[in-house]
Amino acid sequence: MRQVEELSLEAPPRPLVIFGSEGCGKTAFLRQATAMLKETSYDVPHLHPLDRAFPAEVDDAEVKSPSST
């Protein structure tokens, strides 16, 4: 988790790719990392490829509202 936190402080941020065999804890690790980073006000998208819907959770009003252009 410390390494994930250190990566989150880099500018510009880099994508983090996690890989491993089935059942080794990749999803659990990413969920824990997502929760930890959200507690520090870091905006973290978490998409699981097997989910059917990808709801957007954003706080920015400009992103939530349609463009007026």
Quickly give the structural class. Answer: mainly alpha
Quick one: how many beta strands?
0
Strand content: under 5%
Overall geometry comes to globular
Order of helices and strands: HHH
Average pLDDT, all residues: 76
Distance between the termini: 42 Å
Oligomeric status:
single chain
Number of helices: 3
Q: Work out the radius of gyration.
A: 14 Å
Major β-sheet profile: none
Features:
36% helix, 0% strand, 3 helices, mainly alpha, single chain, 69 residues
How would you describe the overall organization of this protein?
This protein has 69 residues and is mainly α. The protein has one domain (2-64). Helix content is 36%, strand content 0%. The longest helix is centred in the middle third of the chain and has 14 residues, at 26-39. It is globular and about 35 Å long. The chain starts with a helix and ends in a 5-residue tail after the last helix. The mean pLDDT is 76.
Describe the protein's topology:
Blueprint: H1 2-8, H2 26-39, H3 61-64
Would you kindly provide a brief summary of this structure?
The protein is mainly α and 69 residues long. The protein contains 3 helices and no strands. The chain has helices spanning 2-8, 26-39, 61-64.
